[in-house]
Amino acid sequence: MRRLIREPLVHFLVLGGLVLAVQHLLVPPEPLPYDATPIRITAADIERLRREWVRETGRTPTAAELRASIEHHIDEIVLLREALRLELDLRDAVARERLLRNLRFAFPQRRASDATLLHEARALGMSMQDPVVRRRLVQMMERRLTATVPYDEAALRRHLAAESHRAGLAGLRYRFHHVFLSADRAYADAHAAAQELRARLNAGTVTAREAGDPFLHGDVFDSLSEQEIAARFGTGFATALAQVPTGRWSGPLVSPYGLHLVYVEARLPAVADNGAAQQAPVVSAWIEQQRMAVLRARLARLRAHYRIEVAPLDTIAHQT
User: Which domain CATH number covers 181?
Assistant: First the structure.
């Protein structure tokens, strides 16, 4: 036996077996074929997405917003299918542990190896249905698709120059308050009602506290940048606010929420900062834009491998 162990051929075979075992662990297996089952977005799916939007935002989505929500949902399904095609659910430690725990909880008497249990969990659809595993796999696929993002330094320099010219890297900050007229409230002529209310506010026959509808984010805003205003009220609102005179009621300005009469108290210069500190968020935002552009392009190529069927939006209108 000792002579056998000392034989070079035995050493070669043992080492060869170890190499193959390591390769099996480190080198991903050949991916499975693409799933030919169509991705079907039914009327019920669209209605669920619409209700989720209402629950999260407190308002009904526009047709464009609902379509965007549907497209995002399709993207997630494509990423999830691609993750399953690459068997990431069987190789990722977090997903494996979650699936094993789920199956052992559902079938406590089941005695089998981890590999067997994982394939059973997959056959039961747990990789698709468990929200933690789904989110994990989608995030892993997003990272894989954006692992290599080409950055054009010259394009970044042009972007910084344009931002510097537009905002002066110091920009302006706005101090203003507003009276809100909700889009959900029944006004016979909303713009005429807003103009009449603006005249009364400027004449002093009514105060801002007495006028308008409640607004979730408050009535007074202090030291907001144009970007912060755009994030809260929309780009169109922020652009219009830049043209509003100070010291009197103006408007109405339009936002996704409804109409706003605004009183700009002051436009204040931002506190100057050093160039690097000011440029850092601009650079970060630009890099994120490049990453998202690459993700959209690579997602589009992935989507081409799947047949996608979406119910018409007008079927939702008939159901609600």
Answer: 3.10.50.40
